[in-house]
Amino acid sequence: MRKVLLTTSLAVVATITAVVPAQAIRGGVEAPAPYAFSGSLQRPDSPRDDGHTCGVTLIAPSWAVTAGHCTKNNPSGAQVGRPKDWTVRLGTTDAGSGGEVIAVERFITYSPYPVHEGDVGLLKLKKPAKTKPVALPSARPAEGTRVRILGWGMTCDRRAPECYPKKLREADTVMQPVQACDGIHAERELCVGALDGSVAATNMDSGGPGLVRDGDGWLIAGVVSGSGGDDRPVMYTDLSYFKAWINDVVTGKIDPPDTPVPNLEGGAIVGGVCSASVVRTDRTRPGDPALLLTNGHCVPQRPAPGQTLTDVPVDVPVTIGDRQGYPQAKARTTTLVHATMTGTDTALYRLDQTYAQLRAKGVKIFRLAGRSARPGEQVDIVSAGNGDRFRCTIEAVVPHLREEGYTQDDAYRYDPECKPSHGGSGSPIVLRDGVTVVGVHSTGNDNGEQCTANNPCEVAADGTVSVHQGVRYGSRI
Question: How far apart (Å, rounded) are the C-alpha atoms in residues 383 and 364?
């Protein structure tokens, strides 16, 4: 997959891949004045204090355009939906203040596979903006056309406050031949920036505009989509190619239904990398610090084979989702109570909030089962990391599951149609009552290899080793 220019801390969906280290609007300067029609998509799951995730541009009083991977990058990966606490901030040079802030009522993505079939998305605002929209182009800009690019993209390759510019940056560059961008879809994408990449968009500039002159004003030719290769220009979605679809959506001629969303209530993300859930026992009291269950391989310092970590101070962020997967509450871990990858692949954290505090915020709390799941029993895997709820059957209990020097005992093997993937590690395995947790999802055999990383093998009671490519496994608790 090509690399898109977006980072996020909430979810990793299928169209989002690793990002390229770069400088914010490389070769640019701080914008001396705001662009009334241009702004920032701001979300509570942003890793930044100012909430910025993507660039947006107002194209009608109640509609803004951005990259499709910015709208599709929501907790469930829905193509069309009604987000929680998304806003756009228009007409300011400061992503964290000023301008006009309007809530987003709905997002509509052109394709369920935006990077490959058309990387454009629309945001319907809850009220019309006061400012004048920018016009769409009537035709594709010619090679050599001067382009002005804008954005609040990262200034270095770390997710850290010092890498997030507060002020809008801009640069003047040129429309390049499509051959200058690797992996471009020539019929519907533009190649924008210096040939050596010294002037170009970068991480978190996704959805930001490429503007061309229209007399004394501007037209928006495209929006930032993805990297054109190291030290290359950047690919922009050509809005002239999608103009008819955009106009049909804005005028109401096309009004797609919301994408059905699975019930993700209680699914959590820990450390920005693994799924998890808040769990209680029969002896839990409301005033007790809440406990968070995930995988042993998800902790910052993995336990070695045969090792169990106990009572280790650990501070990592936790986001707990609502029914649609949007953030219901945020917390932090204080202590790694217990973690191991031997016998079982599980970890238990203590949080900085009590059960009562989390319940007051509407958080769903799961109950730890007093037994294991049985072969043939139906379960749900609630995966915040995958943005999905998998309905599965425990096909078998495997005596030993071996992977990269580690061994799990009595691991769950799911039916072949059960496919939680990477990012789903640590997801609770829940009985059909919807609240009782009997395990955590842990691994799967990707490539058919034997006993290697991401390719566990089964070891029967008599020592016989077998490999089941594509099959997924969970750990008992």
Answer: 14
DSSP 170-218: EEEEEEEPGGGSTT--TTTEEEES-TTSSSB--TT-TT-EEEEEETTEE
> Minimum mean pLDDT among 24-28, 123-127, 344-348: which range?
24-28
Nearest 10 degrees: CA dihedral of 326, 330, 335, 339?
0
CATH code given to domain 29-251: 2.40.10.10
DSSP state of 414: E
Confidence class of residue 8 from pLDDT cuts 50, 70 and 90?
very low
**160: Cβ contacts below 8 Å, ≥ 6 apart:** none
Rounded to whole angstroms, how far apart are CA atoms 350 and 160?
Answer: 25
pLDDT digits (tens, 9 = 90+) for 279-336: 999 999 999 999 999 999 999 999 999 999 999 999 999 999 999 999 999 999 999 9
Cα–Cα distance measured from residue 205 to residue 115, given in angstroms and rounded to the nearest whole number: 15
Helix (H, G, I), strand (E, B) or coil at 62: coil
CATH architecture of 378-476: Beta Barrel (2.40)
Residue position matching structure tokens 């990707």 = 446
Kindly state the average pLDDT of the residues 39-61.
Answer: 95
**pTM of the model as a whole:** 0.89
CB 37 within 8 A of CB 58: yes
Where do we find the tokens 């608790």?
Answer: 477
Domain with CATH 2.40.10.10 in the chain: 29-251
